Each structure stands twice: as structure tokens, then as C-alpha cells.
């Protein structure tokens, strides 16, 4: 299996400048390759340019621009071209699927923050010795950069990436590992119901409160964004130091919320994996759930629209995105695979409206957001607990069903 590691780098002032130049030159390569694809399609009889054609031009580009493109790793530049090719393939796939395409855009220097090295030892070298207290990673054109390695890397390092987040620099490794030893079985199964009021409710009646990190930081973020909006729109090289500090403040607040949400998801998923052998959850279509309301044209007055509850839906969408369900489910699946646990997604329809005692399904069974009261048998419970029970039963049925 493949596992990723992310470590904070501690570059010197000169190394920071070199890392910034590396991102800038890879961004220039990305934009130039994108421009070539656009020009070929528009002006040369809709000719398509492939990754192989652009990769074959790298040798000439490096020879022509030795000071910029020639100083960096050839394989990392190929990875940048593959990144563009992947974006183009996704664009054509969206067209075929009938989804809003979203043509790949040119990247500004501040919007290009990652450089990938496909193989450890080719343009980069992860240097971690067990008895050396200082860990370093070497990049072509930059040198040996100190790394704050807070945990050991298990397995053989396959790829290395450089990532910039604000003023901080990180190195991201992927290591190939043998299949880990599974955790000892507990004999416990559980169903979970994700929500807004409570982040998680399980079939045993336990609840995990929703931390609402985004809502807690909303006031500070609003003030920082308003301060940033007061600066006039000028070119990047004309921006003042106050403008750059305002940009960094907004980015820092967003990064803090993202890290808090990620930390909460890791801890909640780890608790479930340690306690249960089988975990069932709803197969939520989060992107569809957080879509904006469709406008309702007024048939009597052309050009005007009827109320469609957009304001209330916008608040619900913010709460869904703040909860971070998608991040949590991905982390839960990854941790369960490492621990030898089983995770299964089930159809979420009517899980909160079906009585776990008699099986009666009706909208009236859930009179409020929290209360469940069956109109057939009179069973009363918390609505989220009922949903988790139904999710667990559906997961067990699917688990025991013979393969199609």
C-alpha cells in the first residue's frame, strides 16, 4: 500500500528564494504549454497537442533557457506537463459527461504552489538516517534543505513533492509499504449518521459534537477579507507591503480552519476504527447536497424571479461545507484499510424516516429535526440515532448479500 507523509521544511533565506524561483519557472512552463495547446486548437485546424509532443520539446526549451528552465530537474518538468495533460483530460471528460466543462486556466505565480518529483533520486533525494538528528532533503538547484521530521517514514520512498503554504514550505513523500498488521478484532459493528447539529451519531446512541470551526472563525475572516478588499486592484509588482500582509492574514485564517477540520476528522475516524470491526455510513452526494437553489422565473412578470429559499439554502450549504463530511469519509476509509476494518456505504434514502421497531416509513415519523416518533407503533428516539440504526442494518444486509 501507498502512504503519504508531510513534513515541515526549514530552508535558509537563500533556499527560500531558490524554491520560489523553482515554483515560478514551473508555473511559466505550465502556462506556456497551455498556451501552445490553445493556439494549436484555435489556429492550426483544431490540432490537438499531446503530452508526448510537449515532453519531446523539453530538451530544446532547457537548452534555450539555461538560466531558468535548464537549472531544474527534467523529471519534475515532465511531471508539470503531465499535470496539465491531466487537467485537459478532465476537461474533455466533463464535456462528454454533460457537466459544466471549466477550461484549464493560466496559473498566477501565487496560485502555483506544488512541484512534483516522480522518483526519489531523480532531481531530489530524501536523506533520512536513523542516527542523524537532522533530516534533509536535496533538490536540484536548491541544495540540502533541513526537514522537521516528526515521525519515521516506513517503507521505500517513491515520490517527493514540494508544497508552499503561505510562508511555510513542506515536503510531501509517498512511501510504498507492506500490508500492515490489522488491529485485533473487537466484535463490534456500528452505523454512523452524519449531520449538522451533531457531526456524527452512531447506532449505540453516542454523539460527536460538531466543532463548527468555520463559523467560529467567521468574524475574524470577515474582518480580514474586508480589510483586503479596501486595497485597489493593481498588478502584483505594484502591490504594497500592507497589501501583501492583508493577503497573508486571510490565507493564514483559512489555513488554520482547514487544519482544525482535518485534525477533528482524523481523531473522529481513529476512534471509530479502533472500536469497531465494521462501520456503515450513508453514501452521501455532498456536491449535490450543497448546490445553490435553481432560480424560479415569475411567469406573470418576465425578467423577475419568485422566492426560492436561496438565503436559507446558502446557510445550509455553508454548514455542510464547514462540517467536512467528504474529508472525514476519505480519512475513515483510509484508516480502516490500514487497520483491517470494513467500511461500507449504503443508500441514505428514508434512513431517518423508517421506524427501527416496526419498519413503518413516513415523513410524519420525524416531526422535528431531533425527534423521531413513529405514527404506527409510537416508538420514540433521537432522529440521528434512528438514522444510524437503519444505516447499520442496511450495511449488514448488503455485507451478507451474495455477490451479483
Total DSSP helices:
11
How are helices and strands ordered from N to C? EHHHHEEEEEEEEEHHHEHEEHHEEEH
Low-confidence stretches: none
- Strand residue content: 15-25%
Mean pLDDT: 91
Count of spatially separate domains: 2
Q: Percent helix among the residues?
A: 40-55%
Measure the end-to-end span. Answer: 27 Å
Helix/strand/pairing category: alpha+beta
| Largest β-sheet summary | 7 strands, antiparallel
* Major sheet strand order: 2-6-7-1-5-4-3
Query: What's the Cα radius of gyration?
Result: 26 Å
Number of extended strands: 16
Global morphology: globular
Sum up the structure in keywords:
404 residues; alpha+beta; Nucleotidyltransferase, domain 5; 2 domains; seven-stranded antiparallel beta sheet; five-stranded mixed beta sheet; 11 helices
Question: Mind sketching the topology for me?
Answer:
Layout: E1 2-10, H1 13-43, H2 51-56, H3 58-64, H4 74-97, E2 114-117, E3 124-127, E4 135-139, E5 143-148, E6 156-165, E7 168-176, E8 189-194, E9 198-202, E10 207-209, H5 213-216, H6 218-229, H7 241-275, E11 278-282, H8 286-289, E12 296-297, E13 305-306, H9 310-323, H10 325-339, E14 342-346, E15 371-373, E16 380-382, H11 383-400
Parallel strand pairs: 8-11, 11-14
Antiparallel strand pairs: 1-5, 1-7, 2-6, 3-4, 4-5, 6-7, 8-9, 9-10, 12-13, 15-16
What does this protein look like?
- The protein is an alpha+beta fold and 404 residues long.
- It folds into two domains: 2-176, no CATH class; 189-212 and 259-400, Nucleotidyltransferase, domain 5, CATH 3.30.420.
- It is 42% helix and 20% strand.
- The protein is built from eleven helices and 16 strands.
- The protein has helices at 13-43, 51-56, 58-64, 74-97, 213-216, 218-229, 241-275, 286-289, 310-323, 325-339, 383-400, and strands at 2-10, 114-117, 124-127, 135-139, 143-148, 156-165, 168-176, 189-194, 198-202, 207-209, 278-282, 296-297, 305-306, 342-346, 371-373, 380-382.
- A seven-stranded antiparallel beta sheet has the order 2-6-7-1-5-4-3. A five-stranded mixed beta sheet has the order 10-9-8-11-14.
- α7 (241-275) crosses α10.
- The longest helix has 35 residues, at 241-275.
- The relative contact order is 0.10.
Amino acid at each position: 500500500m501507498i502512504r503519504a507523509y508531510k513534513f515541515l521544511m526549514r530552508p535558509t533565506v537563500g533556499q527560500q528564494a531558490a524554491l520560489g524561483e523553482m515554483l515560478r519557472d514551473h508555473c511559466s512552463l505550465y502556462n506556456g504549454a497551455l498556451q501552445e495547446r490553445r493556439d494549436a486548437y484555435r489556429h492550426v485546424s483544431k490540432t490537438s497537442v499531446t503530452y508526448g509532443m510537449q515532453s519531446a520539446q523539453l530538451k530544446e526549451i532547457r537548452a534555450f533557457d539555461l538560466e531558468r528552465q535548464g537549472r531544474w530537474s527534467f523529471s519534475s518538468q515532465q511531471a508539470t506537463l503531465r499535470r496539465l495533460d491531466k487537467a485537459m483530460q478532465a476537461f474533455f471528460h466533463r464535456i462528454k459527461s454533460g457537466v459544466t466543462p471549466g477550461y484549464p486556466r493560466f496559473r498566477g505565480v501565487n496560485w502555483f504552489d506544488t512541484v512534483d518529483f516522480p522518483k526519489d533520486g531523480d532531481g531530489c533525494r530524501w536523506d533520512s538516517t536513523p542516527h542523524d538528528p537532522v533530516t534533509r532533503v536535496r533538490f536540484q538547484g536548491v541544495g540540502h534543505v533541513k526537514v522537521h521530521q516528526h515521525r519515521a517514514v516506513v517503507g521505500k520512498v517513491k515520490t517527493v513533492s514540494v508544497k508552499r503554504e503561505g510562508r511555510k514550505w513542506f515536503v510531501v513523500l509517498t512511501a510504498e509499504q507492506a500490508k500492515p498488521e490489522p488491529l485485533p478484532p473487537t466484535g463490534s459493528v456500528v452505523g454512523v449518521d452524519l449531520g449538522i447539529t451533531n457531526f456524527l451519531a452512531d447506532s449505540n446512541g453516542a454523539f460527536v459534537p460538531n466543532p463548527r470551526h468555520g463559523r467560529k472563525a467567521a468574524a475574524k475572516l470577515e474582518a480580514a477579507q474586508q480589510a483586503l478588499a479596501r486595497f485597489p486592484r493593481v498588478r502584483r509588482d505594484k502591490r504594497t507591503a500592507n497589501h501583501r500582509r492583508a493577503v497573508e492574514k486571510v490565507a493564514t485564517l483559512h489555513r488554520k480552519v482547514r487544519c482544525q477540520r482535518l485534525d477533528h476528522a482524523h481523531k473522529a475516524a481513529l476512534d471509530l476504527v479502533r472500536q469497531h470491526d465494521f462501520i456503515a455510513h450513508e453514501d452521501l452526494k455532498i456536491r449535490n447536497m450543497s448546490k445553490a437553489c435553481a432560480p424560479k422565473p415569475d411567469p406573470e412578470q418576465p425578467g423577475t424571479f419568485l422566492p426560492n429559499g436561496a438565503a436559507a439554502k446558502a446557510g445550509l450549504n455553508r454548514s455542510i461545507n464547514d462540517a467536512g463530511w467528504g474529508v472525514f469519509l476519505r480519512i475513515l476509509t483510509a484508516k480502516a484499510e490500514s487497520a483491517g476494518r470494513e467500511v461500507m456505504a449504503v443508500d441514505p434514502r428514508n434512513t431517518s424516516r423508517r421506524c427501527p421497531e416496526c419498519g413503518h416509513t413516513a415523513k410524519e415519523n420525524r416531526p422535528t429535526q431531533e425527534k423521531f416518533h413513529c405514527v404506527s407503533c409510537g416508538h420514540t428516539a433521537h432522529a440521528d440515532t434512528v438514522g444510524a440504526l437503519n444505516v447499520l442494518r442496511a450495511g449488514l444486509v448488503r455485507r451478507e448479500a451474495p455477490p451479483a
